[in-house]
Q: What sequence folds into this?
């Protein structure tokens, strides 16, 4: 898909200027910080902001997944009489890897939203309700972005929101409209190459896992909390723990316990839990359940060395 070129931004001050005058502060602008940690989640902030729109919702979001869209639908964000404009990224790699989903764009279109896209240069995440309130953030419309990732954003109210609206409208004019036919054709193409894409993704996952193990001590956070070991899981490790568990038995009961002890990306483990994880991962062969526990067992070993 071709995307029009992007002209230089028209600004009153040079971004790199050393002697530029200070930006005037408007007296009744209000800023609120939003984190995905101890102060709630982005889901609540996005839901509250978009529900407050009376005329138009503007969204800039590179990666959008169906599950997160359905959560917003269930929250009555896209109610009757509201115009919705969504500016997203149109990049095959994102759809192949599943970080963005064509089904999500289909859902938005069925709800009456207008969808336009840029190529892979789009990285901003902005949510605007009318011209009164806006959220500038790091969070995409994905379950992880709205709930579990470490994300941070700023909600602004007042005259500054008009600047966000002006920039959105400018980018909207430059973007390419995504039609129902575009999505159907993209889904057909994706299906044709899905087997090869899955094989390549499997190889990429192996490379990423190997690299992660080589730097685990640098990026891994762990601490003691009342006798329990708390380990921060990577997104892949967390997804592995949260996969559905079927059947009954010691391994299944352990996995269900781990799921219950998971808060966001932080997994709390008692000494007994640690012993069971290491024992099940290393003693009972190479089955699917055992492989799910091996990265966690390696984490535990690194933490108690």
A:
């Amino acid at each position: 898909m071709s995307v029009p070129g992007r002209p230089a931004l028209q600004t009153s001050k040079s971004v790199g200027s050393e002697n530029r005058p200070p930006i005037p502060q408007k007296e009744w602008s209000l800023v609120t910080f939003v984190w995905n940690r101890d102060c709630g989640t982005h889901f609540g902030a996005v839901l509250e902001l978009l529900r407050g729109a009376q005329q138009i919702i503007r969204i800039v979001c590179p990666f959008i997944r169906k599950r997160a869209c359905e959560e917003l639908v269930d929250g009555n964000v896209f109610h009757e009489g509201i115009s919705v404009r969504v500016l997203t990224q149109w990049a095959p790699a994102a759809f192949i890897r599943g970080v963005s989903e064509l089904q999500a764009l289909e859902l938005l279109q069925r709800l009456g939203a207008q969808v336009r896209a840029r190529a892979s240069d789009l990285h901003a995440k902005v949510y605007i309700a009318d011209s009164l309130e806006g959220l500038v953030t790091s969070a995409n419309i994905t379950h992880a972005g709205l709930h579990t990732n470490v994300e941070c954003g700023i909600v602004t109210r007042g005259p500054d929101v008009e600047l966000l609206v002006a920039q959105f409208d400018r980018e909207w004019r430059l973007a390419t409209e995504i039609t129902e036919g575009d999505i159907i054709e993209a889904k057909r193409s994706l299906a044709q190459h899905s087997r090869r894409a899955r094989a390549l993704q499997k190889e990429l996952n192996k490379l990423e896992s190997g690299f992660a193990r080589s730097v685990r001590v640098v990026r891994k956070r762990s601490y003691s909390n009342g006798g329990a070991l708390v380990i921060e899981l990577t997104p892949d490790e967390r997804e592995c723990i949260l996969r559905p568990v079927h059947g009954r038995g010691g391994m299944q009961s352990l996995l269900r316990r781990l799921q219950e002890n998971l808060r966001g990306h932080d997994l709390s483990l008692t000494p007994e839990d640690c012993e069971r994880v290491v024992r099940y991962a290393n003693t009972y062969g190479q089955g699917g359940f055992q492989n799910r526990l091996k990265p966690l067992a390696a984490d535990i070993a690194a933490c108690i060395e």
